[in-house]
Structures are given as structure tokens and as C-alpha cells.
Design goal:
- The chain is an alpha/beta fold and about 240 residues long.
- It has a domain at about 1-20 and about 70-110 and about 165-240: TPP-binding domain (Rossmann fold).
- It is built from ten helices and nine strands.
- It has helices at about 25-30, 30-35, 40-45, 45-60, 70-75, 95-100, 125-135, 165-175, 195-200, 225-235, and strands at about 1-10, 85-90, 105-110, 110-120, 125, 150-155, 180, 205-210, 220-225.
- The chain has a six-stranded parallel beta sheet, sandwiched between helices.
- Helix 4 packs across helix 7 (about 125-135), helix 5 (about 70-75) runs parallel beside helix 10 and helix 8 (about 165-175) runs parallel beside helix 9.
- It is elongated and about 55 Å long.
- The mean pLDDT is about 90.
- The chain binds zinc ion.
- Zinc ion binds near residues 123, 145, 146 and 148.
- Zinc ion binds near residues 120 and 145.
Length: about 240
């Protein structure tokens, strides 16, 4: 069994209509105030920030987005005989799972925007339920169990990544035979440490990204073509005996 690990970033989901919030045209660049909606302190302390954050969640197309050819190609690779796939993702859109990859094979470094977490009791419920309450007129829906403040199950600015999630990503990175970084600039921790770790442990390193990354010189191959065509083509040939 060949373990193929992917590290995916915002670039894999732009074909699904999800903007890159940190990119050159990102929402946060155009509207610095918007960043407060995703920062833990202001979110917890200011009901007006939460009210605005719920309106953004209601309006966002993220919950309606569909997986694209790259997500599907990764899910299909997992079906292939002799290959095991694991995905480590910086994305919170849930599109790898929507493409058919089992949830247990996806490590979400920054959490998921498809659910909400109570900051009081920790219970997780679907985002669609919370958004339905906002649409029904609640400006800042509270936890139905304990009355606590609800937030998206994503890692906000000012919050730490989950240690267990990072440990799982490291274990996958160390154990894989092939490591493919796709649609990530590899500049944010822990994504910035994983390709080097994979290469140090003997994995073949492949980078698929529109822009140069700090790891291009360590990679066995670098693909600059659009992800939606480059990744399916790459995966078709992967593991084919030559
Ligand atoms: Zn609660």
C-alpha cells in the first residue's frame, strides 16, 4: 500500500467559487474591519461583531459550494487499488469530504465552517441549523443546551490549532511515500513545516501551485498549470508502472 498525502490550501477551492480570503484580492485586504469578525477576542466580547459575523455566514456561498475536478480526482485516487490517501487541509469548506473522501481521511488544520461549536460547553452542531435560526430572526443565536456563545468550528485568529490535529498531520507527513502540496503558498505554520518534513523522511515531494513557494527547490516536481487540470492529470499517472 502506497500512502499518498496531500496538503491542500485555498487554491484548490477557488474553482468552486470560494475566494482566497488571504490572497491579493482577499476580503481581509479589501476590508480590514472584516478581519475582526474572525478574531477571537472581538468576537467573544462584542455582540455587534457577532451579529455581523452571523450575517456574513448567512450570506456566504460556502455552504452551497460544490467540489471541483481536483477534489474529485483526490477522492477517486483513494479508490484505486494499492493506494491510501490522506488529506491535510488548510481549508474549512469541507469539499474533500463532499467529493466522497471519508471524513476520517481528512485532517482539517483550521477546523470546519460546516459546523458551529459552543464556547461554553463545547457541543458541535451543524452550521445550517444555526444559520436557519439567524434567518428566522435571531441576530446572535446562543447554545440551545447551555446558552453559551456559538462560533464557527474554525480556528479563529487568536486561537491555537488543536494539538491532536497537528500531531496527526505530522504523523501522516512522516509516514507517506508521496507528499503533494496543492494550492497552498506554504507560508503559514504548520503548513510551512510539513513539506520539508516529508522530504526529510524520504517522501517524493510534488508541489502544484500557481505561485512559487519556499519549497520549490526541494521538490521532485513543481507544476504551475491550473490546479483543475494539472492535478487530475498528475494523479492519473501517479503510481503507474514505467
Ligand atoms: Zn453550550
Amino acid at each position: 500500500m502506497t500512502l499518498v498525502a496531500f496538503l491542500s490550501g485555498a487554491g484548490i477551492s477557488t474553482d468552486s467559487g470560494i475566494p482566497d480570503y488571504r490572497g491579493p484580492n482577499g476580503v481581509w485586504v479589501r476590508d480590514p474591519e472584516a478581519e475582526k469578525l474572525s478574531t477571537y477576542g472581538p468576537y467573544m466580547n462584542d455582540p455587534e461583531i457577532r451579529r455581523r459575523a452571523w450575517q456574513v455566514r448567512r450570506d456566504r456561498t460556502l455552504l452551497d459550494a460544490s467540489p471541483n475536478a481536483a477534489h474529485r480526482a483526490i477522492a477517486e485516487l483513494d479508490q484505486r487499488h494499492g493506494i491510501a490517501v490522506r488529506v491535510i487541509t488548510q481549508n474549512v469548506d469541507g469539499l474533500h469530504q463532499a467529493a466522497g473522501l471519508p471524513a476520517r481521511k481528512v485532517v482539517e488544520l483550521h477546523g470546519s465552517a460546516r459546523s458551529v461549536t459552543c464556547t461554553g460547553c463545547g457541543v458541535r452542531t451543524p452550521m445550517t441549523e444555526a444559520v436557519a435560526r439567524v434567518e428566522a430572526g435571531e441576530s446572535d443565536p446562543a447554545c440551545a443546551k447551555c446558552g453559551g456563545i456559538l462560533k464557527s468550528s474554525t480556528v479563529l485568529f487568536g486561537e491555537h490549532l488543536d494539538d491532536r490535529v497537528v500531531a496527526e498531520a505530522v504523523a501522516i507527513t512522516k509516514g507517506c511515500e508521496v507528499f503533494i502540496a496543492v494550492g497552498t503558498s506554504l507560508q503559514v505554520y504548520p503548513a510551512a513545516t510539513l513539506p520539508g518534513l516529508a522530504a526529510d523522511n524520504g517522501a517524493r515531494l510534488i508541489i502544484v501551485n500557481a505561485e512559487p513557494t519556499p519549497f520549490d527547490d526541494r521538490a521532485d516536481s513543481v507544476l504551475r498549470e491550473p490546479i483543475g487540470t494539472a492535478l487530475p492529470e498528475l494523479l492519473r499517472t501517479l503510481g503507474t508502472p514505467v
